[in-house]
Predict the structure.
Amino acid sequence: MPGTTGPTTATTWLRPLLRLLQARGHDGAQLFARHGVTPALMAQADARVPVAVTRELLTEAQRLTGEPALGLALVRHA
């Protein structure tokens, strides 16, 4: 995200989350867009998002999927 300051996460780390959501029948792209993470941003090799956005995405994904071990489930989509 342009102009981002503070701690950030590479969007490459979010790609498995997007794949997991899609595999579980959720509109991951819509969820990401609600948090300002667009397909164009995800396509940039060096793009970064604030850690707070990453935390929000993970929290909402866990709520949507009901997956108590979200981190372990993400490994399957890496």
About this structure: The beta strands are 8-10, 48-50. Residues 18 and 28 are 5 Å apart (CA to CA). The two ends are 22 Å apart (CA to CA). The longest helix spans residues 51-65.
